[in-house]
UniProtKB/TrEMBL annotation:
It comes from the Bacteria. The chain crosses the membrane at residues 6-27, 34-53, 59-77, 84-107, 119-137, 149-168, 174-193. Keywords: Membrane, Transmembrane, Transmembrane helix. Gene3D superfamilies: 1.20.1280.290. This is Uncharacterized protein with PQ loop repeat. It comes from Sphingobium subterraneum.
Amino acid sequence: MNFAQAVSLVASILCTIAPGLQVLHILRTRSVAGLSVLTCVALVMGNCLAILIGVQYSLGLTLAIMILSLIIQSVMLHLVSPRAALATGAAVIAAIAGTTLLAPGLAADILTTRYHEQVAFLWGIIAATTFIPQVLVTRRTRQTKDLSWLTVITFAVGFTLWTTFAVMVRNWSLMLWCGILTLSVYELVRLKLAEKGARAVM
């Protein structure tokens, strides 16, 4: 395992732990009012593409962790909105089946690095906007109690490492999108700190 693969492995572990921590938080508080359904959907969709990137780069153990992360994120989405979880699952299955049946040659090429920039670009569009709905919900409601503090911190570190990985493998579109994604997560960290400071003043 080279250093870039090690970085991706640690990033994948952190990005798997983060939604798991959020699931535990939801089960403990029984509240999802402050969570964005769109952010949860984007996490699942983005992780599906991240798994494809893992296949393209032959990331091995990291790929297995990404699959585990997808399962956990799907559970989180189901807890937040069962209807959105069902629709998202149907869309993913339809995309895989459609590509495999209608363009088997393309489906095979997508599994190699031939289309790695295109896949990373598509992932990036989803990833870069993933936490924007959550930021908007949090700013509107002015409360972050439904958003796990540990989840936000773990995501921040994990996506920082994914940005580092993108730099190491010189995938420029992945680097751009990871950078934007990381900044949006750090905005959630700032909002959590701001609310904590406001409570301390009161």
